[in-house]
Structures are given as C-alpha cells and as structure tokens.
Amino acid sequence: MDQAPKKLFIKTYGCQMNVYDSERMAEALGASGYVTTEVQDEADMVLLNTCHIREKAAEKVYSDLGRLRPLKEAKPDLKIGVAGCVAQAEGEEILTRMPLVDLVVGPQSYHRLPEMEARVGQGGRAVDTDFPEDDKFEALKTRPKAKRGPTAFLTVQEGCDKFCAFCVVPYTRGAEVSRPAARIVSEARGLVEAGVREITLLGQNVNAWHGDLEGAEGGLAALVGQLARIDGLERIRYTTSHPNDMDEGLIAAHGHEAKLMPYLHLPVQSGSDRILKAMNRKHTAEQYLRLIERIRAARPDILLTSDFIVGFPGETDADFEATMDLVREVRYGSAYSFKYSPRPGTPAAERKTQVEPSVMDDRLQRLQKLLGDQQRAAQEAMVGRETTVLFEKPGRLPGQMVGKSEHLFAVHVAAPESLRGEIARVRITASGPNSLAGELAG
Ligand code: SAH
Ligand code: SF4
Ligand code: F3S
C-alpha cells in the first residue's frame, strides 16, 4: 500500500553551496518518501542547513532550534536535523546542547541521510561528520527531471586548501576536491532539459577547479568551454574565486566566451599588505590591482564584486585607509563587507590584538557607504544602455516581469509572463535602490 508522503522542511543559511546542497538533500530524502514543504508546522522532518562562517550565523541556528521546541512537543514524531557547516564544526556537541535534535550530518556525508533517517525512525539519534572516501555526488541518485526555474547552481568544486587565518571553511568543508568534467556536463545537460538557461558553477575556490580535461589550460576555462557547447544553456557564471587561482585561460575566456557573463566576484578582504599577509591571503594589494587590470583588458565591461573584512586583529587606521584606497581604485559594482568575527580553531582568533567593536562599527559604516555609492554609480551607468535580461518571475506590479541583467542586476520590465525563462534585450530606463527598470528593446 502506498503511504502518504512525509513532509520535509529545509531552512538554508549561508552561501550558495548550501542552497545547492539543500536541493540535493531533499532529493536524497525523496528516496525515504519525503516531499518538500514551505510550511514548517506541517513538516515531519525539519532540517537546518547551517553556516559557521561568523559567530552570528552559528548562534542563529541555536536560537532557531530553541524556537522549534513547541512544535516538537506538539508533534513528538517530528524529526529535527542539523546539516551544513555548524554540523561539521560542532558534531556531537549539538546533540548534547540541544536534546531535541535527532540527527547531525556534515556537508560531505549527506548522501547517507536516508540511512540516518531510518535509524532515527527506530528511536535512535545519528551523527555523521565524516569526510568519506566515496564521493557523495556519485552516491546520490541522478537528479529528477521535474521542470525547474531558469537559473540553477551547480557545485563543481568543494573545499579549500588556502587556510586564510580567519576562516573556518577549510575545516568545515575539507580539502579541495574537483568533480569530474563528464559528471558536471551531464548534470548541466539535465538542468537545461528541465528548463534551466543560466548555470552558476559553485566552489569554495571554484577557479581552482582542476578536473580531468586535457591540455595546459585544462582548468575552469576548459570546463566553461565544454559547458558553453550545450544547446539551450545561454549563460554561465562561477563563484567564488580566489585571486591567486585566476589563470590566463580563465581571464582570456572572459574575452572570447560569449556565454560567460561579464561578472566576477573576486574577494580581496583588505587593501593593506600587512593585513593581507597576516590573513595568509598570499598576495599583495598591488598584485590584486594588476590582476583586475588584466581582467578588464580581456572584458572591459566586466562588473567586479568582492568581500571585505574590517577589524581583522591588528588592523590600524592606516590599514583601513589602504582598504578604502583599493576600493576607490577598483570601483566595484557591489560588495559584501563584514566585521571580523573570531572563529574557534582559526589562527586569527588567538591573536591578542583584537580591534575594539566601536572602531569596527565605524570602519564598517564608512566602507559600506563607499561601496553603496559605487553600486549606485554602476547601476546609474546602465541607464540609457541596452543589456540582455533573463526573466525569472512576475514583478510586484501587474504586467511586470523581473529578471537579471548580464551584470546580475535585478531588472523590472513591463513584459508578458510568457517571457519567463526567456532572454530578451532590454533598454535600461531608470535605476532604483536595489534594482533597475527597463523596457523591451525593439
Ligand atoms: N571561499 C570564498 C568565501 C568564503 S566565506 C573566498 O575565499 O572568497 C565568504 C566571506 O565571508 C569571505 O570572503 C570573508 O569576507 C567572510 N568571512 C570569512 N570568515 C570570516 C570571519 N571570521 N569574520 C568575518 N568575515 C568572514
Ligand atoms: Fe576561507 Fe580563504 Fe578558503 Fe575563502 S580562500 S574559503 S576565505 S580559507
Ligand atoms: Fe557558511 Fe559553510 Fe558556506 S561556513 S559560507 S555554509 S561553506
């Protein structure tokens, strides 16, 4: 007899890779009879796919777990799982601190979720934070063919060997591993058959992808080249890149690969050589600036974005001013900036020279003002110009659609809903706080 499907509610924190992993976890639990729900209260299983990057992100998980208590009391059979980077970093401790949690699964072992779920069903609790030899993507079933929206993420590389002094990722995601090209291409074909037009290739250091393609330029550029040959795939992006892994082939691809969008997230973290050294970033501000020059020579209209940390231990006013100078020189299209957060087990957390919170606040405010001004300028520079837009969904106003420009700006356009999933030429007419407005170009 067929059983009614069980319902799975997943909450995703953190980076795009967690968004991708959440999809794959839902697919894995499909084998155990689960379908996803958007309504937490009707779930038979709640899975929090967590992020450990800053203290706030990690603590949020515990407050959200606390808030699940009444639901668990009302539904004793409710299963609660913690996945992702907090799961990896804290493992068993989560079970001790939070008795309502039934299972804890790390980012490299979630292909084992169905067995873990079964164990929990028999009244046990389960923890798996292994970095198994077997590749989870090989163990997971092929992806369902169900129709999807026009954009998708696709993980091609995971893990990090860089060990920046502030960062937990090398510990939570493990060493750098690249997926084989053939698997990636076949997954991308499946996504395109399901309606996807734009794929963003993901990796903690995506441009360190070194799969199994031949030749001196067998890196990410070669993979992009293979993917670009898929009919129906119109746009390719990739994130996140490390400056030291931007090889010549990839820079050149921005010049000749029409499907590669003119957008690059290239985190620099700081503009001070002293701080870059203390962060173990292994490049100087000058080297980064020269790299940007080469990238812009290959693709003059490329939009650059970055991540910054203010208040890294030992950061002086002069160091911070060097960051402001670098930002003024690069002119970013947008960027993320964060106050330094000491993370357990990382070398920077041990430093005695932590920066005062009020100083950090002040620096963050100044940096965000500058980056905000630059974003506004980048958006305003689009007004009067034409770009292509991939339409994703209806806008707030009737008769309006919203999509993304080549530069990843949201664009609102009066357009029929039949354009969903289509790419059209749009003339930008106005720039708003966080999006552009435009009209279909004739
Ligand atoms: N792999 C990517 C991104 C890693 S996490 C990269 O190397 O660029 C995303 C961003 O979070 C980082 O770029 C950094 O700016 C920020 N971050 C990481 N650790 C942090 C910490 N301890 N405190 C504050 N911000 C942090
Ligand atoms: Fe973290 Fe640095 Fe690795 Fe990025 S490159 S994931 S910031 S250690
Ligand atoms: Fe967070 Fe892990 Fe991503 S720590 S940023 S979810 S890799």
Automatic annotation (TrEMBL):
SUPFAM superfamilies xref list: Radical SAM enzymes
TRAM domain sequence ranges: 380-442
Protein residues bound to [4Fe-4S] cluster 1: C15, C51, C85
GO cellular component terms listed in the entry, alphabetical order: cytosol
Subcellular compartments: Cytoplasm
GO MF term set: 4 iron, 4 sulfur cluster binding; metal ion binding; tRNA-2-methylthio-N(6)-dimethylallyladenosine(37) synthase activity
Radical SAM core domain span: 146-380
Cofactors, names only: [4Fe-4S] cluster
Bound cofactor: record note: Binds 2 [4Fe-4S] clusters. One cluster is coordinated with 3 cysteines and an exchangeable S-adenosyl-L-methionine.
Catalysed conversion reaction: N(6)-dimethylallyladenosine(37) in tRNA + (sulfur carrier)-SH + AH2 + 2 S-adenosyl-L-methionine = 2-methylsulfanyl-N(6)-dimethylallyladenosine(37) in tRNA + (sulfur carrier)-H + 5'-deoxyadenosine + L-methionine + A + S-adenosyl-L-homocysteine + 2 H(+); N(6)-dimethylallyladenosine(37) in tRNA + (sulfur carrier)-SH + AH2 + S-adenosyl-L-methionine = 2-thio-N(6)-dimethylallyladenosine(37) in tRNA + (sulfur carrier)-H + 5'-deoxyadenosine + L-methionine + A + H(+); 2-thio-N(6)-dimethylallyladenosine(37) in tRNA + S-adenosyl-L-methionine = 2-methylsulfanyl-N(6)-dimethylallyladenosine(37) in tRNA + S-adenosyl-L-homocysteine + H(+)
EC number: 2.8.4.3
Domain of life: Bacteria
Keyword S-adenosyl-L-methionine found: yes
Record flagged with keyword Cytoplasm: yes
Physiological role: Catalyzes the methylthiolation of N6-(dimethylallyl)adenosine (i(6)A), leading to the formation of 2-methylthio-N6-(dimethylallyl)adenosine (ms(2)i(6)A) at position 37 in tRNAs that read codons beginning with uridine.
Subunit: Monomer.
Family, similarity comment: Belongs to the methylthiotransferase family. MiaB subfamily.
NCBIfam families attached to this UniProt entry: miaB-methiolase, MiaB/RimO family radical SAM methylthiotransferase
Protein name (Swiss-Prot/TrEMBL): tRNA-2-methylthio-N(6)-dimethylallyladenosine synthase
Source organism (scientific name): Limimaricola hongkongensis DSM 17492
